[in-house]
Amino acid sequence: MNQLFWEILGWLGYLQRSAVVAQVLLILGLSVGWHLSSPQQRLENLHPALRLLVAPIAMLFIAWLIVLPGGKSGLVSYAGLCWLGWNLLNLLNQLLQRLLPASSVHQLESRLLRPLFLVLVGLNLISKFDNPADLGVIKLGSLFGEILTVNNLVVALLVTYLLLVGTKLPAAGLSWMLQKLLNCSDSSRKALELIVRYVVVGIGITAVGFHIGLNSTALVAIAGGLSVGLGFGIKEVFSNFISGIWLLFEGSVRPGEILMVDGDPCEVRKLGLRATLLWRDRDNAELLIPNQMFFTAQATSYTATDRMRRSEIRVGAAYRHDPQLVLKLLEQTALNVPRVLNHPAPRALQVHYGDSAIEYSLRYWISDPMNNIGIVSEVNQAIWTAFKREGIEIPFPQQVNTVREIPPFRSEPGAGDNPPVSLR
Amino acid sequence: MKEQWGDSHEFEDQNGSVNHLSIVRARLAASVLFSTLLLSVSACSRLGNELPVMLYLAMVIDQDSTIDTATQTDFRQRIQLIISDFRKIKPNVEVQVALYKRANLNQELQRRNASDLGPDLVVTDAPQANQLLSDGLTEEIPLQDFKLQQTETTLWERVKLNDGRITAQPIVIYPQIACFNRETVQSPPTTLQELLQQGASGTRIGLAVNFSEVLWTAGSLGAMQSLARANDDQTLSEQDTETLVAWLTWLQRASAQQNISFFQDQGQLENLLNEGELDWVSCNSNSLLRLRKLMGDNLGVSPLPRGPAGTASPMNAVRVLALGANSSPRQREVAVSLAQFITNPMVQRNLSLRSLAFLPVNPAVSVPVRSSQTLDTLVQSRDDSMLHESALAGLAHHRNLDRDGSQVLVPLVFGTSNPRSSLDSLLKALGSGS
């Protein structure tokens, strides 16, 4: 570690060279000057894409001017190229947004493209004053009896990062292919994607472990540590992780499934290592629920075997209407609502003789459980219109009170013949 | 309309204030930059003589090595041996070493020099140092600052370009010798005849097909002067031609023997010796440190066998120190001091004795050959080489000696070309590279 520290510190020695200092100052001056000169206003007539290229190309041009009389401007031209590359990533972003959803492009750019670009820029910069291959074999220490070098560490970190971040697209591609081959559902495809990712990440991290010197002795040591850890601090984490994998294989909580949470239908968006992310349509809230909860508690799903939901509306009609007519009208009304499925057919039932009305139940099926509340509204409106059209009354609560006889006035003993004071 | 005017004025005012603000910001930034520059310059001039001088040293690793932790540690220890002594006279010096593969050095220096970030010193072999100066990647040695007598006169020829510029300071000699496994080879062959006999009796012998690494046999068979004349584009006599054919015939016959094998280069030979696949190989003393670690006491060394026409003509490798092209005046001054320091008799002697792998370039240093058989072998190899030095120096300046020469030797040793036609190809290759 000391050697690496002194190696990096030693790079400052290049500032003993006036040409290097001049290049660094020029790069700083040009960058700061450009940002202070309000380029957006000055170049407002230029196409936004071209606007991005002006500053880097100007820097490259200045570098070329320095080289003409025999000067050294490698750093300046390199800074110009990096600036150009960075701005080109903005253009790439705009292009990708035409092909992929904005959120995916943002993730791809911020988690993969830009970090990779920075790593490449850094390595290339180092190669301008040192040899990265030589730097990479500097010994940092020992791990499980094996030498840990800068190369090993950087490769381990980079591969782990790429595994965690960069396997999403390939896994999605593979699961899409498997979906086509096996003809499975979308939620199964998402589950497959997650399983593929977990497997690739698992194998990759094991390979990284062996790369940095993990062996059977180390595995025993880690297993020992984990067993203690599982007993104390990381029990919940591990429990959630295992629950998540179990649920994936079981297929009850997969991305795309609809579950009832606190009486509201919620769509599973993501099954994470620790928690499941659900989306609630009612208020557009996202719920993070630990995987363990689904593993141990009862859950209601509308999508376990199919995505259909049976919905019900209760309505009352006045006693004077023929129930047969009302039942037929209700079924016909439901069939006319576009989002109500014809098969299974809607069914109306006479369920109760109420105080004010005969109660009917209309049961119908819909294809997307998340649309229930909207379809209920549509069916209710259709019933109201149909009842109005057919003259069927939905009675208000009513009560008929019958007075059989008015009780006579009686005189109290000792009251005499005088009427009460109030009647005088 | 009035309202529009009002808006327009407001817009102009806003614009004006924005412009004014940006001008103020720009001036502020310019003044900060200028002040920083002034401070840097003044501070540098004051501190310049107090700050340690950082020297950047690019070093080429051995042909058969790879850049790994062991190689890095080994090379840095070698440099540290020199620098720790150098600090006794120049205490304010730090050296940062970067290892490069020989094949990549030219390209890497081009990349570094383009930004003025090139090394101050380059440690490599003489042919590459010559190439680097020809390509403008290093600077010539200012001979007026150097003590020429501290370096063997003939070695200066190795680092001299046709226009007379000296490309580097020779620092150590790595003689070509024979390495063998003591377990299987009781007494190493001293003549080519013995070499063939031992091969016939079961000793597994390895030779390199790389031209400069098999050139030693030309001296033993009396072909060196003829090769030198061919390299100088002189007309060859009948006897020269016959001598060269005899040398090539010997190589082909040796290759036909069951236990004598040709391999690409000495790196392979050394690896096979270490793995027990070969018993006797030609090798470079540069690899002795590594082989000693791997083989321990089983490693034996001896001079290369002489032949009927005289001693072997090993093309001993010369490690040289070239001056980088981007140094600041202080860095250059210290780099020149270090280059001179390395040829100091005491340093040269210490280097040889500590490593037991190379010889000093300073003729005033006497190597204690009685104390070590390895040193004795190295000295004998150097003396053998000196007998052919003029011819070897000429060949060392050939631009693509190994590439062109090996293209001739490969078909010869594998029997697809006869010595006569190989000679024609060889003469053509030598003529084109001079």
Q: Main beta sheet of chain A, described? A: 5 strands, antiparallel
Tell how many strands the DSSP assignment of chain B holds.
12
Helix proportion of chain B: 40-55%
Radius of gyration of chain B: 29 Å
Number of strands of chain A: 10
Order of helices and strands of chain B: HEHEHEHEHEEHEHHHHEHEHEEHHEHHHH
Distance, first to last CA of chain A: 113 Å
Query: Widest sheet of chain A: strand order?
Result: 6-5-4-3-7
Structure report:
The complex is a heterodimer of chains A (424) and B (434). By secondary structure, chain A is an alpha+beta fold. Chain A contains 15 helices and 10 strands. Chain A has a 5-stranded antiparallel β-sheet. Chain A has a 3-stranded antiparallel β-sheet with strand order 8-10-9, covered by helices on one side. In chain A, helix 4 runs antiparallel to helix 5, helix 9 (168-182) packs across helix 10 and helix 14 packs across helix 15 (372-390). Chain A is elongated and about 125 Å long. Chain A starts with a helix and ends in a 34-residue tail after the last helix. By secondary structure, chain B is an alpha/beta fold. Chain B contains 18 helices and 12 strands. Chain B has helices spanning 2-47, 69-86, 102-113, 126-134, 153-158, 192-200, 211-214, 216-220, 224-231, 238-256, 266-274, 288-295, 329-342, 345-355, 373-387, 389-396, 401-413, 419-433, and strands spanning 53-60, 93-100, 121-125, 138-139, 169-174, 176-181, 205-208, 260-263, 280-284, 299-302, 317-324, 359-360. In chain B, strand 1 (53-60), helix 2 (69-86) and strand 2 form a beta-alpha-beta unit. The termini of chain B are far apart. At the A-B interface, helix 2, helix 5 and helix 7 of A face helix 1, strand 1, helix 2, strand 2 and helix 3 of B.
